[in-house]
Amino acid sequence: MNTSEDIPSAVVAAPSIGDILVSTGVLRPQNLEQILQLQQREKLPFGEAAIALKLLTREDIDFALSKQFDYSYLDAQDGSLSPQLVAAYKPFSRVGENLRAVRSQLMLNWFNGELSRKVLAVVSPGKGDGRSFVAANLAIVFTQQGQRTLLIDADLRAKPECSQQALFQLDRGPGLSSILAGRGGLDLVKLVPGLPGLCVLTVGAVPPNPQELLGRAVFGRMLMKASELFDVILIDTPSGNDYADAEIISARAGAAIMVARKNQSLVPQASVLSRRLQDSGVSMVGAVLNDA
Ligand SMILES: Nc1ncnc2c1ncn2[C@@H]1O[C@H](COP(=O)(O)OP(=O)(O)OP(=O)(O)O)[C@@H](O)[C@H]1O
Ligand SMILES: [Mg+2]
Q1: Sheet holding 119-123, edge to edge
Q2: Is the pLDDT of residue 135 over 80?
Q3: Measured from the CA of 291, which atom of ligand 1 is nearest?
């Protein structure tokens, strides 16, 4: 027989969807009563009864379900992070579905728990292909699966408004560049409020010599240390066509995933970058067609 000791405590203690919606102010207590009555009378699931009574929307139910199962998900009204983080704001959208498919592909092809298989660079040939978008949202879907995830912004060339610091609305302040300069360690990673399990290492002050810094041995040592602490480490990079940085970063990571933007990225350029990376010993473990 199952005793409560057999069941994870989060499940035993999980509040009902109705309780969550009342406590977050989405539903009034008197409406909760109405829903429960219809639910019992018609033997409907709670969500279906609430939708039939037009008291809740499908989005309200998804939000409550995510809270019930401790799933990192932000309410649309919560403006604390950039709306571009669709995996956090609209996890059940088509983009969210696609990101989860990429996550499954990567779990099969790359992340297997071994220390040497924890890091993945997110690369693409051109500017604006969506590397930062894909890296940030993929980091969120890994977090939602319960993986301890670190997102490293190694695009030391990015405009500040396109950086991971801006997407996650984190403090400016020291980040990767300080670690590479020997002035700090992994204690500089920042937690993302509202998305437990996700850590971000921002760029920090932009250095005048990015390539030289990325080539330092301290980068490799930092990734080795991070591999002991995290399950998944994703690295955002600058465009592969414009700088050698992506190659240097991917060689440190050991593996990379290619982002191609629909109707924008040129297939020959992606193949050339892929070949260059493979020649440097990088495993190409997946591709994302970013079709915004
Ligand atoms: N799938 C998508 N859905 C919606 N918007 C997207 C998508 N992909 C990218 N974008 C938007 O397109 C713009 C460029 O994307 P992003 O900054 O991620 O590209 P990048 O490859 O990192 O560019 P850069 O070369 O500047 O580093 C951003 O405003 C981003 O939010
Ligand atoms: Mg970018």
Answers
A1: 190-191, 198-201, 149-153, 232-236, 119-123, 255-261, 283-290
A2: yes
A3: 1
132 in contact with ligand 1, CB cutoff 6 A = yes
Which of 86, 99, 122, 132 to probe ligand 1 with, by most ligand atoms within 8 A of CB? 132
Q: Ligand nearest 127 Cα, by number?
A: 1
In this structure, are residues 135 and 234 in contact, taking their beta carbons and an 8 Å threshold? yes
Which ligand is the nearest neighbour of the Cα of 124?
1
Q: What is the mean pLDDT of residues 266-278?
A: 90
Q: Which two tokens stand for residue 246?
A: 């992506």
Taking only the tens place, the pLDDT of each residue in 188-234 is 999 998 888 899 999 999 988 999 999 999 999 999 999 999 999 99
Q: 102: closest CA among 69, 70, 68, 130? A: 130
Domain-by-domain residue ranges, the chain? 4-68, 86-290
Give the pLDDT score at 193.
Answer: 85
Confirm or reject: Cβ of 130 under 6 Å from ligand 1.
yes
User: Which of 6-10, 27-31, 72-76, 264-268 shows the highest mean pLDDT?
Assistant: 27-31
Tokens read off for 47: 């969500």
> Do 95 and 103 form a contact (C-beta atoms < 8 A)?
no
Among 133, 235, 264, the mutation site with the greatest number of ligand 1 atoms within 8 A of its Cβ is: 133
Domain 86-290 falls in which CATH fold? Answer: Rossmann fold (3.40.50)
